[in-house]
From TrEMBL:
PANTHER family in the record: GAMMA TUBULIN COMPLEX PROTEIN, GAMMA-TUBULIN COMPLEX COMPONENT 6
Lineage: Eukaryota, Viridiplantae, Streptophyta, Embryophyta, Tracheophyta
Major subcellular site: cytoplasm
Protein name per Swiss-Prot or TrEMBL: Gamma-tubulin complex component
Subcellular compartments: Cytoplasm, Cytoskeleton, Microtubule organizing center
Organism: Kingdonia uniflora
Family recorded in the similarity comment: Belongs to the TUBGCP family.
Keywords on record: Cytoplasm, Cytoskeleton, Microtubule
Length: 262
């Protein structure tokens, strides 16, 4: 009960000021609802009452959360962690949480949980790489400091690529070039019509790249544990302890050369 209450409050906090979408879960079908209808009361007012209230969260809200999580925003990573855990651990249909457009695409709760976990893992790596860069900047080795500058450039490119997702989706949808698209994904995601599935598919290569960067920074073991029994705080503390084991100076050059060859 407490878990469902926390999950409902989490979804309530995601509500954005956008048009409501009416939900049509499979239980609204009389043959699937499990309720035996009485012919005498078929015309009563009670039979016309909807099973569910208007949707509590739009897909726009979830897409906005995911885009922020991909950038490594810590509080959104916590939300993604909780949501993915809830969906993955309870594979039953969760239309009672009223996320309509997702279910219209025939996504099971387990599939949705895996999608959120994959996105959250990539965002968590981006978050850890930023912490890793801060650690390298305090290093006495000029090689490590130069490596940190390179990491910053890679992260800037990663965020810039996320900003092009909306334009990429619009171009894929249209058979012609789209003229006058209003800005990037980071500033206009709340006004866009892109779906969670489109964000997931269009960021696949980006997520692969940021995971490869995490492997170079020796963050793989920590990132794989995202949305498991360990919390983000515990995983972050574990990663920070491992920063001290990262090669320095000439050893870093040897390490990078070895990784490049492999």
């Amino acid at each position: 009960m407490a878990a469902n209450s926390n999950f409902s409050s989490l979804l309530q906090n995601l509500k954005l000021e956008d048009p409501w979408l009416s939900s049509k879960p499979w239980e609204s079908i009389k043959s699937e609802s499990g309720v035996i209808s009485n012919p005498k009361s078929s015309n009563s007012d009670d039979s016309k009452q909807p099973l569910y209230k208007p949707s509590m969260i739009s897909e726009v809200g979830l897409v906005s959360l995911v885009v922020n999580a991909l950038q490594g925003v810590e509080f959104t990573l916590r939300s993604i962690e909780k949501m993915s855990e809830m969906f993955c651990n309870d594979p039953a249909d969760r239309t009672k949480f009223r996320t309509p457009s997702l279910w219209n695409r025939s996504l099971s709760s387990c599939s949705l949980g895996k999608i959120l976990k994959s996105i959250g893992r990539a965002g968590f790596i981006a978050f850890l790489v930023r912490r890793f860069v801060e650690h390298l900047r305090s290093s006495c080795s000029l090689v490590n400091q130069a490596f940190s500058v390179a990491m910053v450039r890679v992260l800037e490119g990663y965020v810039s690529a996320i900003d092009t997702v909306c334009s990429s989706v619009e171009l894929r949808r249209s058979s012609k070039m789209v003229d006058g698209f209003g800005g990037g994904c980071l500033t206009n995601v709340a006004n866009s019509e892109i779906t969670l599935i489109e964000v997931y598919l269009h960021t696949k290569e980006l997520r692969n790249h940021i995971e490869a960067l995490g492997n170079i920074c020796l963050l793989r073991n920590v990132s794989v544990a995202f949305s498991t029994s360990s919390s983000i705080e515990d995983l972050t503390a574990e990663a920070i302890k491992g920063f001290c084991d990262f090669p320095r100076g000439a050893n870093l050059l040897t390490y990078l050369y070895t990784r490049l060859r492999s």
